[in-house]
# Entry
Amino acid sequence: MPSPVSGGTRPCPGHGPRSCRGRAASAGGLIAWNSGSPAQGSPRPTEPARTIAKAALAGEPAAAASLDAYVDRLARGLAVIADILDPDAIVLGGGMSNVEALYERLPAAIGSYAFSDVFTTPVRKAAHGDSSGVRGAAWLWPLEPGP
# Structure
């Protein structure tokens, strides 16, 4: 199974000494990567993920490198899921689902880690964007109080 980061693992705050995929796939993962670590050189100021993504798309080198690393880490995790489950589609939710560049870049990146030589699974945005999880949870709430 591919590591969430190339070259091995990195500590995950709150989850122990090994990297975790949840952290790597979140906006917090992009922010932490962009802020720098001892392995990446001097730290940069912490910026919101949306700001980092916009700067990357505008060609700012450090932000572009951070977004590239984020796409790579996310692709590594999704490739494992795709190899095991063979989904008809991969649907992204949460705040990072608003970064349109992910839908262009992820299929090829996932394909580079997938077991098969051909990867055709589409990557799509959740119908309700970053509110999809909250909407789904609200539908689970009972309308009538139970006995």
The radius of gyration is 17 Å. Residues 38-43 have pLDDT under 50 and may be disordered. Residues 35 and 45 are 6 Å apart (CA to CA).
